[in-house]
Amino acid sequence: MAIQRVGIVGGGQMGGGVAEVTARSGLATVVREVSPEAAERSRSGIERSLGRALDRGKIDEATHQAILDNLTFTTELSDLSDCDLVVEAVIESFDLKAEIFAELDAIVTSPDAILATNTSSIPIIDIAMATDRPDHVVGLHFFNPAPVMALVEVIPSVRTDPSVTEQVTAFATDVLGKTVVAAKDRAGFVVNMLLVPYLLGAMRMFEDGHATAEDIDTGMTLGAGHPMGPLTLSDLIGLDTMLLVGETLQAEYGDPAYAPPALLRRMVAGGHLGRKTGRGFYDYS
Ligand code: CAA
After folding, report:
1. Atom 23 of ligand 1 has which residue's CA nearest to it?
2. Residue 121: what pLDDT?
3. 187 vs 190, 191, 258, 271, CA distance in Å?
4. Quick check: CB of 227 below 6 Å from ligand 1?
5. Beta strands in 14-118, from DSSP E residues, in sequence order
6. Which CATH superfamily is domain 192-277 in?
7. Where are the domains positioned within the chain?
8. 284 has which bridge partners?
9. Is 233 near ligand 1, meaning CB less than 6 Å away?
10. Top CATH class, 5-182
């Protein structure tokens, strides 16, 4: 089965980015959001990103229009019924993801369709078992910003059919142009298992008054050659996501390096979620 029509559940920062990637790859892409307002925000976010690419001469007018034509937005999950691949990219809540996968299982008609989750940390098997087709459920983990970051992690669960893993790997590589690393179904997969303790460590240093946010970030950009410092990157990922991923890793491994610092909890409680709310370790207003 060729993947021609892609459904994205959740058109936020990650889902919108993934939708841009699939639409740019010439695939009919339908994005499902929870309300018309959220769907409109998702559409305008993708349009802004494509507009930048057009202004910078990365794509021409005809390509820009063709990509926009590949995209539709809906509030109805049933509009994803004829998709060959669905990528779920809602917040890191197991209950919400389980509910969505159970609904997708009932809605998506083709028995060959692949149901993928972009979760950063929730076990793929737990999500798969919310469906009656766990052999067709797989982890497909993109990185933020998805249109720019070259990597995708492919994570089969113990129930994923090996042909499904092969198919999404080939799809991510040949159709989306990404580089794939394969990971086991363990919290954090490859990248977050290494990245998250580093980012949480930077927050602890800041919390302890070890150095200013600017100096911690400058230290890692200029001293270690990272494109962004850890606090800037945490703001980009979203501090709510950082908290949830840290909690999941901590629950799985019990290692204090994964324990979210109190400051992170307080910032999330106070609505300082990073770039998306205009305030995190830095002020974006
Ligand atoms: N959407 C689409 N394109 C974007 C974009 C976005 N949100 N942000 C930047 N870009 C594009 C720009 O348009 C530009 O494109 P061109 O070169 O084609 O003109 C290109 O990216 C570079 O952007 P800038 O020149 O504005 O800025 P930069 O050189 O500082 O790069 C960056 C920005 C790519 C984000 C870079 O800073 C970077 O790589 N940062 C690290 C990001 C990272 O580590 N992400 C992983 C987070 S972890 C994760 O996502 C997993 C998880 O589960 C938590």
Report:
1. 148
2. 84
3. 9, 10, 11, 26
4. yes
5. 28-32, 71-74, 85-88, 114-117
6. N-(1-d-carboxylethyl)-l-norvaline Dehydrogenase; domain 2 (1.10.1040.10)
7. 5-182, 192-277
8. none
9. yes
10. alpha beta
Residue 199's nearest CA partner among 158, 191, 209 is 191
The rounded Å distance from CA 257 to ligand 1 centre is: 26
Per-residue b or e along 247-280, where b marks 16 or more CB atoms closer than 10 Å to that residue's CB: bbbbeeeeeeebbbbeebeebbeeebbbbbbebb
Q: What is the dihedral of CA 211, 212, 218, 219, to 10 degrees?
A: 10
Position 134: which residue type? P
With both helix axes pointing from N to C terminus, report the angle between 213-224 and 191-207 in degrees, rounded to the nearest 10. Answer: 140
Task: Determine the distance from the C-alpha atom of residue 18 to the mean position of all C-alpha atoms in its chain, rounded to a whole number.
Answer: 8
Which residue, judged by its Cα, is nearest atom 29 of ligand 1? 227
Inter-residue contact 159 to 283 (CB < 8 Å): no
DSSP helix/strand/coil, 139: strand
Q: What is the pLDDT along the chain (285 residues), one digit of tens a residue?
A: 799 999 999 999 999 999 999 999 999 999 999 999 999 999 999 999 999 999 999 999 999 999 999 999 999 999 999 999 999 999 988 999 999 999 999 999 999 999 999 998 899 999 999 999 999 999 999 999 999 999 999 999 999 999 999 999 999 999 999 999 999 999 999 999 999 999 999 999 999 999 999 999 999 999 999 999 999 999 999 999 999 999 999 999 999 999 999 999 999 999 999 999 999 999 999
Which residue's C-alpha comes closest to atom 38 of ligand 1? 227
